[in-house]
Automatic annotation (TrEMBL):
The lineage of its organism: Bacteria, Bacillati, Bacillota, Clostridia, Eubacteriales. The keyword Transmembrane helix applies. GO terms for cellular component: outer membrane-bounded periplasmic space. InterPro entries: MurNAc-LAA_cat (IPR002508), N-acetylmuramoyl_amidase_3 (IPR050695). SUPFAM superfamilies: Zn-dependent exopeptidases. It comes from Desulfitobacterium dichloroeliminans (strain LMG P-21439 / DCA1). This is N-acetylmuramoyl-L-alanine amidase.
Amino acid sequence: MRKPVVIPGKRTQGMAIIIVITLMLGLVISVFHQGSAAVLGPQETKYKVVLDAGHGGYDPGAITKQGVYEKEINLEMAKRIKELLGPAGIEITLTREEDIDYVPEGVRGRQSKKQADLNHRISLATKAEADALISLHLNATPSGKNTGAETFYHFQSEPGKMLAETIQQELIKVPGMNRRIAKPGEFYLIKNSPMPAVIVELGYISNPKEFAKLQQPWYQDQLAQAVAKGVANYFGLP
C-alpha cells in the first residue's frame, strides 16, 4: 500500500521558508564572525622580540644587604613583560626562564665567562630573527642614593636609540620616577647585537626605598606596563 503524499499547505510552506532563512542567516553570521576574528585577533604582522633577563646562574648581578639577587627580579620582570606583549601580536622569546647562565664548561676568567654568556644571548636573538633585543637589569651604586629607571642604546644604532627613547618615555610616567632620558652606552650586548638592542635598568637595587618597591608586585606591574607600552609604541601598535 502506498504511503499518502502530504502536500504542504500555506502554513507548512511558511515554516519551511523561515527555517531556510534562519539557516542561511546563521551561515552568513558564522562566515562574517570568522572573517572578523581574523582581523580583530592577533596582529597579522608578527614582530619578534627577545627579552633578556640579565645575569643568572653563576652571575647574580647586584646583591642587596638582605641577600636578594638582581638576577631574581630581572627574571620576574621579563616574565611579566612577556605576558603583556604576547596579546599585542608580538612573539616573545626569553633568553632564560630559570636561574641559569650560558658559560661553556672550561671557560675561566670573569671577563671571558661574561663575554661567552652574552654571546650566547645575542646568538639566541639572532636565531630567533628578533626585531629587537631588550636586556633587563637593575642598577646599583656604593652610595645607595641614586634612584630611577634608565635605558641605554648604542650610539651607532639609530633604531636602538628610537627603541630606548620610546621605552624611557613610558618609564618616566611611572609615579615617583625620575625624569631621565635615554642614553648612549658602550655595553657589550648592545654594541654587538645585529638587531636594535637596549639595556633597561629598571631601578636602583642599592637604594633602600626603591629596592622595597622593586620587590612589590604592584610596582613590578607598573614597570612592566611601561616597558611593554614603549615596545608597542616602537612598533606602532595600539
